[in-house]
Automatic annotation (TrEMBL):
Organism, scientific name: Aurantibacter aestuarii
GO MF terms held by the record: endonuclease activity
Keyword Hydrolase: yes
SUPFAM superfamilies: GIY-YIG endonuclease (SSF82771)
Name the UniProt record assigns to this protein: Endonuclease
Keyword Hydrolase: yes
Domain called GIY-YIG: residue spans: 3-82
Entry-linked Gene3D superfamilies: GIY-YIG endonuclease (3.40.1440.10)
CDD domains referenced in this protein's UniProt entry, alphabetically: GIY-YIG_unchar_3
Length: 99
């Protein structure tokens, strides 16, 4: 199934910092994080070099994606880690797997 909106989690090289976001163009958003990480470092993701996609969920409606993003941001780190591990057990970079 193709989705129009995504909630995603990116992390840094050492998997110590997580950034949760929502977008309607995940490839473009990942490119923006990468650019900011290598240049201006104006955003949280850029400042902490969070450029590695490790988790995502697709949604048909923006309202649903925004609700889920807010929900995940409230979770404790342990719960986020479990969510990621269930989806991506080795915390592998998924940047090239997203269509």
């Amino acid at each position: 199934m193709l989705y129009n909106y995504f909630v995603y989690i990116v992390t840094n090289e050492y998997r110590t910092t997580l950034y949760i976001g929502v977008t309607n163009n995940i490839q473009n958003r990942l490119a923006q994080h990468y650019f900011d990480s290598n240049n201006a470092k104006k955003s949280f993701a850029g400042k902490y070099n969070c450029i590695y996609l490790i988790y995502y969920e697709g949604f048909n409606y923006p309202k649903d994606a925004i609700y889920r993003e807010k929900q995940l941001k409230k979770w404790r780190r342990e719960k986020k880690n479990l969510l990621i591990s269930n989806f991506n057990p080795k915390w592998e970079t998924l940047n090239n797997e997203i269509i």
